[in-house]
């Protein structure tokens, strides 16, 4: 799949499959009647701090907030007379990746197509495209493209002034804002970071992954795939970097009041900015990176975005024969607790883990949910059965509870067999529902997809809403996103943007 000729064939197949079939159109999906679901309930939790320079929590980036919690204070659909709609924005495959909402409730999303990323503004009710901004095309000869490349526009953040900060395929950070007067996107500023990436022999290239502001708003932090950690002073354009030689970063990172939390394929880090704005390493904690790139993984290392909650940061490692969930102390990076998950030889995740913290009788109590992505094969996206045909599935809730002796105990609360092999899951703390996008193998190498709700407390499946069958309804690593007014889920698939909502209460 890394050869240019092979990639060309894939893109031609994608184009021929969808050309004339889903260009800028819409589809309403007939959904089988769903029994009245068992209602879940509010989950006890402490609120997630609001980053003062980002859009409101739940609306600012792929993982909802600066802490990357993947949790919401609003409810989503509960499977009551659900309505499913698919809207496409191009004649070929077009996947809406990051989905955010501006102050007027309009959708801002990165739409990935074979020839690049496009920033779209979308009406949340009609799903009509209101504006488009093309980003530079990606380099198709790059060895990472398309299945191991998360750069070029997939990640972006929305700031507190409704400005999109996106790292493009030319290693520039573009600041883009929609102008209500002209009805168009405008480029507010652009920062060229191409001279700060790791030099490589073509066609290999280093890539800026994403950028996010410090808690005081004075600097924007950024990382590159091959080990650069940097800061940008927006007004002056001053850039300072350090290099983590021999390490890769393919996940988004988290931002706390105390610094930037970044995971590489070798270690977990916390950085702060020195008096001159330069990145300063506070601590580094190595983890078990295993012996191989497991099926579904992008590289040999953690597939998780660091999750901040309370006094802890959590990640998954890549250990053999079972991956571990690691809880580290935010103050010094020391390991507080670890627990292996899933079956031996079939255990890994390439997605962020919804998590929350609450006040318990003996101190702070922590919960997170991890899905098993083992067996997803990205290069089999176009084959019979799709890329998830060999995925093993499984979801687990892990709690870390004070043990009464000054330490903590990790334990598995429940497991679910649901197969959420690719999509970033989300949890509603308002309704106690974990939202998954689940795969179902059907006769004759056909396959279908469901928006599935799982009770956060028990692990029991509450509802399963069929969305559609085949490639057009395949999500490819994009997140489930709950609308800011509640009751609605949006999600990118290879056919565009799906909206699921209840039509009865």
Number of strands: 34
Could you say which overall geometry the principal axes of the C-alpha atoms support?
globular
CATH architecture: 7 Propeller
The top-level CATH class is Mainly Beta
- Give the quaternary arrangement of the chains: single chain
Distance between the termini: 47 Å
Q: What keyword list fits this structure?
A:
505 residues, mainly beta, Methylamine Dehydrogenase, Chain H, five-stranded antiparallel sheet, five-stranded mixed sheet, 34 strands, 42% strand, globular, disordered N terminus
Description:
The chain has one helix and 34 strands. It has 505 residues and is mainly beta. It has a single domain (44-68, 91-422), classed as Methylamine Dehydrogenase, Chain H (7 Propeller), CATH 2.130.10. The strands form eight sheets. It has a five-stranded antiparallel sheet, with no helix packed on it. β6 (116-122) and β7 form a beta hairpin. The radius of gyration is 21 Å and the shape is globular.
